[in-house]
From TrEMBL, chains A, B:
Keywords: Aminotransferase, DNA-binding, Pyridoxal phosphate, Transcription, Transcription regulation, Transferase
Family note: In the C-terminal section; belongs to the class-I pyridoxal-phosphate-dependent aminotransferase family.
Matching InterPro entries: Aminotransferase_I/II_large, HTH_trans_reg/aminotransferase, PyrdxlP-dep_Trfase, PyrdxlP-dep_Trfase_major, PyrdxlP-dep_Trfase_small, Tscrpt_reg_HTH_GntR, WH-like_DNA-bd_sf, WH_DNA-bd_sf
Protein name, as recorded: PLP-dependent aminotransferase family protein
PROSITE patterns listed in its UniProt record: HTH_GNTR
Residues covered by the HTH gntR-type domain: 10-78
Pfam families: Aminotran_1_2 (PF00155), GntR (PF00392)
GO MF entry, a single one: DNA binding
Domain of life according to the entry: Bacteria
Aminoacyl-tRNA synthetase recorded as keyword: no
UniProt entry tagged with the keyword DNA-binding: yes
Length: 483, 483
């Protein structure tokens, strides 16, 4: 047997692992199949035993294979066929009467509790962040800044940080300049300015569905009407569906999380992004693009953003480092295209400026190669986590559940049996100190009560596996009690 | 001659200085009068020569007396009668058509220029801040915080900081608990949440006039109508005027900077505060109280706040450390009374949380006696500055100008001859690298074009004196050119 190792990675062991991974996903190797013996493979390909072992360990960490003592490595799991996939959403535009605001408050408050396994928190846990290096950058910036960072930053934000974000934009097909950007207190803060800049109370905006609850709540708080669009769990909003919506409704703005969306994890294909940008441009409707998760891709390159197809300044591209470096720094940014003056005014009137020291620290952090180095590690960890979570959910949850298959990001979206109310499940899970985000948070409609969002942004561990097992047990019990 | 020294300060030299200061203000000692000789005073009162000298130096630093070689100390200046005082404003509710937004943008942008004497910036300059101690607190908090401050803070904000702000509230007659407070990204951010929590687009709010431009701009940006009330430059809005306004208009909220207001510097007397709180409570109209400058008083004790008279949770008390410690930290707070849940939701939807490290650093800074110690020094510096500025303005500006007489805070409000446009003056002053805030920024009406705000939050120096001299010269020239 001769295999051609053609993974796209630099390292040989990764090339080997990727080749086997593809065979597993394509079901060339089926669950239960034995992988070639290490010794044999080493001999045939003139590759050292330790490199082959490294490749197998890597597949084992991802939960794809298991080693059986005195026997070898066997395929144990294939994420591509198990469990069932979620279908495209079909929002019904019927408003529910649940007090979702109270549910969101409860979920957030519970985050402060000690000893809770926080599947509800869609940020990386500190264990997988470069804390020491970030802290060094912070202390250095406090030392270097005029008046130790006690003075106001420019309204538009720290110049070095903006320069670095602009430099980084080439990774997603962008060609930003520092002056195209305004810094904000995180990505949600950027989105909030965008919505205020381009809408007025009573206007209608169109969003994907399910959609990040923060945007729904914010839009409601400023008096907007919200149209939830059908959304494919792999590719997001279809241009045809959007065209229909634009023809039937007076839509003033769109909001999409185009890469590894929260909560479904879809990643919009590049051609679709281009089509959406052209369509919206034709209708004169601005797009707020939340590209918060774009850097955390599991494939070989970063997906592009809608902004990269924007020729008219019609896309307001928002992002931050809250999902990759330091949520508590509260640093984000927006490239608001032709709305930049409005965004600067809004920032001035709301907050004057954002915190000085963190912006400077991130500016210098991004200027080195450290961010890239950290991201490489983070992607690996999260990819492995996503596979481990998927495997464990397949193992511990009822068979008929459906599950998203994200190609990046932090989160899984689960659809349980129709009769299950995940808010009730949440309350039972919290008794066992397990939190997650109930599906009802992600819509204003009477939907997704049987869905839930799980974050896998923490290191994989026996404790996490136990928590998933308990959670699966609770779901099975609820399944049974209604059967 | 036997004088009874009865100043209220701890130090004997300050008691002596305060006694003479009172005599100067009361015109018992007139400009040109000689103070008792140091030797004589020392002998009569059995006080050391050095203590008497310290008292005279103190008066000299305040610009009240001058030493004449081989002769002694003479009264050189009496701020209580010179120059003329500003009259109560009488807003006319006629909207102007100047592009004030552009003017504000221009003034802010010019702040970034090097080598400009920034009379426009109403924050303390770094030279009078405890930079080293603050920085130490920052570095310590980065070290002590879980995950070095990279994690989200609680939505309500750092607990120790809230506890310290609550403890500090006894200084202004408050009795807050940590749980009564929500932290924000500075005071303007707190005010912005308050306005959003209690109004909806189309509502009318009542404000003092002239009023801090940030509030005007923010209120406009969320679609509010603004009623500018007559405002006394010493005592603020009169309860009778407010009653009339409440009867004639459907006012949904009031906004007042009750202590050392920006820009007129008025401080509302305690009885008046109580009357306003009762009146608003009777009408069910909430009060947003901006108490940003309250800690920077020149008298013997901190003025109370309206919040201290609030029994129904009807006052939303906002403040920050941007005017006393570190504007660039972007830390403020609000005690929103019965609106606390709404404020917490708004903060969550706009920004999720505020920056973690600065909150913790300030919590520990306020827990020691350092804040009190710093404030004592800051008040002294600013009081001296206010007197020096007043003296210099009296010396270099045309005689007929009118000037505020603040009892605290950072700023002077000048009224020039009616025909002078201070925006035109601003442009001429910037040619000489001097900035200030033109009066037109502080109203939505066709008013205050001949007014200007000067900040004295920088160390007094020959350069500052020169800048005031140049500015006075420009005003004199404009006076003359139209005469």
């Amino acid at each position: 047997m001769k295999i051609v190792f053609k993974g796209k990675s630099d390292h040989l062991y990764l090339q080997i692992a990727e080749t086997f991974q593809k065979q597993i996903l394509d079901e060339v190797l089926k669950i239960g199949d034995k992988l070639p013996s290490v010794r044999l493979l080493s001999k045939e390909h003139a590759i050292s035993v330790s490199t082959i072992l490294q490749a197998y360990y890597h597949l084992e960490a991802k939960g794809l294979v298991e080693s059986r003592p005195q026997s070898g490595y066997y395929v144990s799991f294939n994420p591509s066929r198990f469990p069932r996939k979620i279908e495209k959403s079909d929002p019904i535009q019927v408003v529910k009467n649940k007090n979702v605001e109270a549910i969101i408050g409860e979920v957030y408050d519970d985050l402060a509790m000690d000893g809770v396994v926080k599947f509800s928190l869609s940020v990386p846990s500190p264990e997988i962040l470069p804390l020491a290096r970030l802290n060094k950058a912070m202390i250095q910036s406090l030392r270097d800044l005029p008046a130790n960072g006690t003075s106001y930053e420019k309204i538009q934000g720290n110049e070095e940080l903006r320069r670095q974000v602009a430099r980084w934009s080439m990774h997603w097909g962008g060609h930003l300049q520092a002056d195209d950007l305004v810094t904000t207190a995180g990505c949600m803060n950027a989105v909030s300015y965008c919505l205020q800049a381009i809408t007025k109370p009573g206007d209608t905006i169109a969003v994907e569905s399910p959609v990040y609850f923060g945007v729904l709540r914010f839009a409601q708080s400023i008096g907007l009407k919200i149209l939830e669009l059908p959304t494919d769990p792999d590719t997001g909003v279809d241009p045809d569906d959007l065209r229909n919506a634009l023809e039937q409704h007076d839509i003033k703005a769109c909001f999409f999380v185009t890469n590894f969306s929260n909560p479904t994890g879809y990643c919009m294909p590049d051609e679709q992004k281009e089509a959406i940008v052209k369509l919206l441009s034709k209708h004169g409707v601005p797009l707020i693009e939340d590209d918060l998760y774009g850097d955390v891709y599991f494939g070989n390159k970063r997906p592009r953003s809608c902004k990269s197809f924007d020729e008219e300044g019609n896309v307001l591209w928002c992002s931050s480092i809250s999902k990759t470096l330091a949520p508590g720094y509260r640093v984000g940014w927006v490239a608001p295209g032709k709305y930049i003056d409005k965004i600067k005014s809004l920032k001035l009137y709301h907050c004057i400026t954002s915190a000085t020291a963190q912006q400077a620290a991130l500016g210098s952090f991004l200027a080195t190669g450290r961010y890239e180095q950290h991201l490489r590690k983070l992607r690996q960890t999260l990819h492995t986590n996503s596979l481990q979570f998927t495997r464990a959910i397949g193992e511990y949850f009822p068979e008929e559940i459906k599950l998203s298959t994200p190609k990046g990001g932090f989160i899984l979206w689960l659809e349980l049996a129709e009769h299950i109310d995940t808010y009730q499940l949440y309350q039972e899970a919290m008794q066992q100190k397990i939190s997650f985000a109930p599906g009802t948070m992600f819509t204003l409609q009477d939907r997704y009560q049987n869905c839930m969002r799980l974050s896998y942004g923490m290191p994989w561990s026996a404790e996490v596996e136990q928590a998933l097992k308990k959670l699966g047990g609770l779901v099975k019990k609820m399944n049974g009690s209604m059967a």
